[in-house]
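Supplementary Note 3. Input sequence used for the single-chain structure prediction.
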Amino acid sequence: MDYRVFRRAHDPDRRMSEIERNRADDEAMTTVRIDSRRFGTIEVEESSLFEFADGLLGLEESTRSLVLVEQEDTPYYWLHSATDPDVAFVVTDPWAFWPDYDIVIPDEVEEELGLAGPEDVGVMVLVSVRPAADGGSPTVTANLLGPLVVSSSTRRGRQLVLDNARYSARQRIGA
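The predicted structure, written as discrete structure tokens, is reproduced below.
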């Protein structure tokens, strides 16, 4: 799927919390308990988890994750592993900072995730915060070369690895 098609249909007001809530109503309501070091005990419906069959790069065993929305008025969210309670990443919608961000989702990934169309696609990028050496403002970057693509209907996701010289694995936010 050419993601530019989605970008044209992309609603900047569509938040990750909406993707998080967009799941079938007829799914069984099985509760999963995550004893998170960062957030304490989290109990969520199993149907709210995303399945990353191959995990994330460097964390292949971390195959099930939850998107946590702490505040609705921020572009940042948490991607918290349900298989490793110590693993949680800050993520964001790349279009919140880079309106011209473009990716192409390979056909095999589209099929693997069961993407039903542009409205079914969610994209997040991992965010890193590095403290300044001199005690100044931290450097906040996003990995635009390794976006996470998820299906809001099938709850499956995959981390892509892009080969695009326009983007960086440490693209500064707010620079």
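Confidence is low (pLDDT under 50) at residues 1-12, 14-26. The chain is about 10% helix and 30% strand.
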